Amino acid sequence: DHMFMMEYADGKWQQPRVEPFRNLDLHPATSAIHYGQSIFEGMKAYRNKDGEVLLFRPEENARRLNKSADRMCMPNIPEDLFMAGLKELVKLDKDWIPQNNEAALYIRPFMFATDDYIGIKPSDNYVFCIFCCPVGSYYSEPLKVKIEMEYTRAAVGGVGEAKAAGNYAASLYPAKLAKEKGYHQLIWTDAISHEYIEEAGTMNVIFEMDGKLVSPSLSGAILPGITRDSVLKIAESWGIEVEQRRVKVSEIREALESGRLTDAFGAGTAATIAQIKTIGFDDKDFELPAIDQRGFSNKVYAYINDLKRGLVEDPFGWTVTL
């Protein structure tokens, strides 16, 4: 029913406010439309058994938004202001948080350039907004994914590590081609050689091989996922060996062929843990072990969901209660 709004003008953020949800009026020359200065975040709100509202690591979203802003030549938002607006909005609209354990209230903070100017330069004016909507499960089944060896999502030195709107636009056409062949998502490879795994379309990707969790290291072209970071920290706390490093496509193929790759999943806000059932490479599909045989991804999926809903103790201090 509401949204948080704030404008940047004359070199500073203007009056922050929560107001009734409405459409935005834009000038035809709004610079974000023409030159792509647009960034966003994604998070969710949940209820615990006492009806209290819980947020999961929201400070990390505030920090990542500002890192994206730096890369896109946009102003930073003070973290305390971000958090105050977020909390006030969610408190007002908490009745929209679904009771279903598979659903949540999705929260979308975003910022975009608003100069009514045709010309390539950083905008002088911006809008920051947060709105919410109830959502269910992002994926209804384990995923069939394809390793992309032709198209590129992002390159080192580009804006791949920023949560910039254009990154997602660039991924749409290759993802469309993959869906026409029956795949749910792509696993992107590096832009130069296509020899190394990077991330999946809507999430970071993590593999379990030889009893270890292996995740592609953050190269500058990969979004530093908050769910990814949470999964790896949880695994380490459980005594599981974690490797963050460059991962070759050939290594994944060999591990699939030999049976050494026992689990693969995506980690992201939308799906939390999205288990992968099939990996396609070079016109051949490799089937992974049945979902009910996945020890780690099943366990971490249940644990993070319980953590977000206050059903288990939070030893990391990640949950914020409103």
Question: What do you see in this structure?
Answer:
It is a single chain. The longest helix is centred in the middle third of the chain and has 16 residues, at 165-180. The strands form 2 sheets. Strands 1, 2, 3, 4, 5, 6, 7, 8 and 18 form a 9-stranded antiparallel β-sheet that branches. Strands 9, 10, 11, 12, 13, 14, 15, 16 and 17 form a 9-stranded mixed β-sheet that branches. The chain is of the alpha+beta class and 322 residues long. β13 (212-216), α5 and β14 (242-245) form a beta-alpha-beta unit. It has helices at residues 31-35, 58-71, 79-92, 165-180, 226-237, 249-258, 295-308, and strands spanning 2-9, 12-13, 17-20, 38-40, 43-47, 53-56, 104-113, 126-135, 143-147, 185-189, 197-200, 204-209, 212-216, 242-245, 261-268, 272-281, 284-287, 319-321.
Q: Please count the helical segments.
A: 7
> Strand-residue fraction?
25-35%
* H/E element sequence: EEEHEEEHHEEEHEEEEHEHEEEHE
Stretches where pLDDT falls below 50 for ≥5 residues?
Answer: none
List keywords for this structure.
single chain, 322 residues, alpha+beta, 18 strands, 31% strand, globular
In brief, what are we looking at here?
With 322 residues, the chain is of the alpha+beta class.
Map the helices and strands.
Blueprint: E1 2-9, E2 12-13, E3 17-20, H1 31-35, E4 38-40, E5 43-47, E6 53-56, H2 58-71, H3 79-92, E7 104-113, E8 126-135, E9 143-147, H4 165-180, E10 185-189, E11 197-200, E12 204-209, E13 212-216, H5 226-237, E14 242-245, H6 249-258, E15 261-268, E16 272-281, E17 284-287, H7 295-308, E18 319-321
